[in-house]
């Protein structure tokens, strides 16, 4: 598929989705924001089209088996997350492409909230969560799932590093360049391998070790906290197994 | 559209491979159960359930000699097809799409609002029934 064909394809999918959204929710006021790699024009052939919907009430979104990923939230939640230092709304307000703009979106985009800098500590927590999940998936031999979760873990860790350095992370393909420019060549290489190649087990273990070391270096207290949470989960699991009747 | 692959491997080796995928699905279900208890970890529970459903689906595909790919949306389409062709009693295609969305929300960082509405108890219970269905299908 050529890039022009791909673009036409995306346009058709989005037009169909928005038209459907309007007919399903005639009373609702909402904004539809194109986010992710498609918004940055750095998408790959298999990339999902990511959308954010900000609405004044719960709206009906028809679920379809295609590559459209939709996240919905109220204006209030969006603002709360922005003020809490979450990088997701901060990314959306900086780089999102409004396809349908409501008053709420325009108000946020033109307010001082739009320049709130995300808290990089939150990203280390996100990275740790994905890292532990990837590690658990590796233990049961689910290599495909582990590779996917490892990509999330490495991406979150990379965002933490960049935000800490005062650089706003762009899309994942662009972050490879950003990491190289800010003297993190190994992390850039790992991200590239996980993003573009079928990462073999060796790479996954390397990513696991490196990301763990990096997160410990970035935020040792958060790491210890996650280990403690994990200990509680393992204890629950042990009790669960003991309480279970023998087969 | 995915086509049924003409099997080049023996039924015995397919069953062995399918059993491996099902065993993986069961471990993930067991871990998801733990995450569903108070204090619940909805994000981990949903992710583990999603991967468990996918592994169970792959087990069915392998047992029947169907082609499958790593892509999540194609797995959902395969689930719909296996149900339509009556290899499965339960259509899990909608559930796969739903869990993939929730899982992706989580992967952005914070859990999305829809995750709060999800009944984790029902989720793991439905998954358990599906795993039973897959197990009896593979062993029959």
Descriptive account of the structure:
Chain A has 2 domains: about 5-115, Beta Polymerase, domain 2; about 120-245, Nucleotidyltransferases  domain 2 (Four Helix Bundle (Hemerythrin (Met), subunit A), Up-down Bundle), CATH 1.20.120. Chain A contains 11 helices and 4 strands. Chain A has helices spanning about 5-25, 35-40, 75-85, 85-95, 105-110, 120-140, 145-165, 170-180, 185-195, 200-220, 220-245, and strands at about 30-35, 50-55, 70-75, 95-100. Chain A has a 4-stranded mixed sheet. Chain A starts with a helix and ends with a helix. The mean pLDDT of chain A is about 90. Chain B has a single domain, classed as Four Helix Bundle (Hemerythrin (Met), subunit A) (Up-down Bundle). Chain B is about 75% helix and about 0% strand. Chain B contains 6 helices and no strands. Chain B has helices at about 10-35, 40-65, 70-85, 95-105, 115, 120-140. In chain B, helix 1 runs antiparallel to helix 2, helix 1 (about 10-35) runs antiparallel to helix 6 and helix 2 (about 40-65) packs across helix 4. Chain B starts with 10 loop residues before the first helix and ends with a helix. The mean pLDDT of chain B is about 90. The interface of A and B includes residues 65, 87, 137, 149 and 236 of A.
């Amino acid at each position: 598929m050529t890039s022009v064909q791909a673009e036409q394809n995306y346009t058709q999918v989005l037009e169909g989705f928005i038209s459907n959204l309007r007919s399903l929710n005639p009373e609702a006021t909402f904004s539809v924001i194109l986010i992710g790699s498609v918004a940055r024009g750095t998408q790959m052939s298999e990339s999902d089209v990511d959308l954010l919907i900000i609405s004044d009430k719960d709206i009906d979104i028809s679920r379809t088996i295609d590559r459209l990923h939709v996240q919905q939230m109220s204006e209030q939640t969006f603002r709360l997350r922005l003020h809490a230092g979450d990088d997701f709304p901060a990314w959306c307000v900086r780089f999102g492409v409004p396809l349908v703009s409501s008053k709420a979106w325009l108000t946020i985009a033109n307010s001082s909230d739009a320049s709130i800098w995300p808290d990089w500590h939150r990203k280390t927590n996100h990275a740790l969560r994905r890292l532990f999940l990837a590690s658990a998936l590796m233990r049961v031999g689910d290599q495909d799932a582990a590779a996917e979760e490892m990509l999330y873990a490495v991406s979150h860790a990379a965002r933490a590093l960049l935000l800490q350095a005062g650089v706003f992370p762009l899309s994942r393909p662009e972050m490879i360049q950003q990491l190289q420019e800010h003297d993190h060549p190994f992390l850039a290489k790992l991200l590239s391998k996980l993003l573009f190649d079928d990462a073999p087990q060796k790479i996954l273990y390397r990513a696991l070790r490196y990301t763990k070391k990096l997160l410990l270096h970035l935020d040792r207290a958060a790491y210890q906290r996650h280990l403690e949470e994990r200990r509680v989960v393992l204890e629950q699991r042990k009790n669960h197994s003991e309480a279970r009747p023998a087969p | 559209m995915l086509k049924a692959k003409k099997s080049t491997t023996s039924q015995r080796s397919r069953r062995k491979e399918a059993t491996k995928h099902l065993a993986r699905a069961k471990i993930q279900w067991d871990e998801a159960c733990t995450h569903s208890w108070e204090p619940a970890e909805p994000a981990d529970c949903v992710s583990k359930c999603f991967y468990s459903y996918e592994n169970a689906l792959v087990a069915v595909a392998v047992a029947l000699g169907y082609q499958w790919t790593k892509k999540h949306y194609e797995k959902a389409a395969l689930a719909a097809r296996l149900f339509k062709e009556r290899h499965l009693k339960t259509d899990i295609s909608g559930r796969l799409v739903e869990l993939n969305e929730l899982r992706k929300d989580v992967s952005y960082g914070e859990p999305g609002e829809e995750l709060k509405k999800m009944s984790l108890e029902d989720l793991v219970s439905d998954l358990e029934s599906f795993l039973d269905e897959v197990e009896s299908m593979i062993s029959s």
